[in-house]
Amino acid sequence: MLKAVGQALFSTGLQSPKFTEQEKKGPDYEIRTYHATKWVSTSLSAMQWDAATNTGFRRLFNYIQGNNHNKVKVEMTAPVTCRVDPGAGPACESQFTVSFYIPEEHQENPPEPSDPEVFVEHRKEFTAYVRTYGGFSNEKMKHEELQKLLQSLQRDGVPYVDQPFYTAGYDSPFKLTNRRNEVWILKKEEAQQ
To answer: Does 173 sit behind a cis peptide bond, omega within 30 degrees of 0 on the bond before it?
Structure first.
C-alpha cells in the first residue's frame, strides 16, 4: 500500500504513453503524435474543473489499488489526463473525462473495472499541440495556458480543433518543485475520433 501511494505521489520513473515528436512549428509548444493505447477512465458532468478532476482521480486510484474484477494492483502512470467537453454556456455543466494510462504489462488485457463509473478507453492514435507549464496548476492557470496555446496556434495558422481539449498533470500534490503540467489541443484531422 505504502509503495503504491508513494508511486502515485512521486511521478519520477512512472510509465507514460509513447509518442512521436513532430517537427516544431512554434517556439512555445510541441507537436506530438500519441500511439494507440488503452487508458482507464471515468466521466462526470460538473461546473468546477478542479472538483471534477479530484473526484475522477479518486475513482481511478481505487481502480489501480485493486477495485477491479481481478483484484489486481496496477502501477501508477503519468500523466493524469482530463478531457474537457465544455458546456454550451457559462452556467452549463461541462463533461470531464479523467484518465490514467494503463501500463505496458496490462495494455493487452487490462483488468476489468468493478466500479460501473470506470471504463477502459481505447484511444486511437492522435496528434496534439502541447504547451507545458510549471507550478501548482489550478482552474485559472489551465484556462490561461489554454488561451496562450490557442493564440500560438492562431499565430502559426495551424489547423486545430477547439474542443474537446485536454489537460495533463505529471506530479503528485506533494512534489513541490519542477512541476510539469500541460494543455493539449488536437490537430484538426483528429476531430473524427
So the answer is: no
CB atoms near residue 85 (< 10 Å): 13
Other Cβ atoms less than 10 A from the Cβ of 40: the count is 24
Which amino acid, one-letter code, is at 43? Answer: S
Of the CA atoms within 13 Å of residue 75, those in its CB half-sphere come to 16
Residue 80: burial class (beta carbons within 10 Å; 0-12, 13-18, 19+): buried
Cβ burial, residue 8 (10 Å; 0-12/13-18/19+)? buried
Nearest to 99 by CA among 125, 116, 123: 123
Q: Where are the domains of the chain?
A: 2-192
Q: What are phi and psi of 168, to 5 degrees?
A: -140, 130
pLDDT tens across 39-50, in order?
Answer: 999 999 988 888
User: For residue 176, what is the enclosing H or E element?
Assistant: none
- How far apart are alpha carbons 183 and 168 in whole angstroms? 6
> Do the beta carbons of residue 133 and residue 184 sit within 8 Å?
no
Distance CA 81, CA 145 (A): 15
Average pLDDT, the chain: 89
Burial (CB count <10 Å: 0-12, 13-18, 19+), residue 73: middle
Instruction: List the grid coordinates of 166.
Output: 485536454
What kind of fold does domain 2-192 have according to CATH?
Answer: Multidrug-efflux Transporter 1 Regulator Bmrr; Chain A (3.20.80)
pTM for the complete prediction? Answer: 0.88
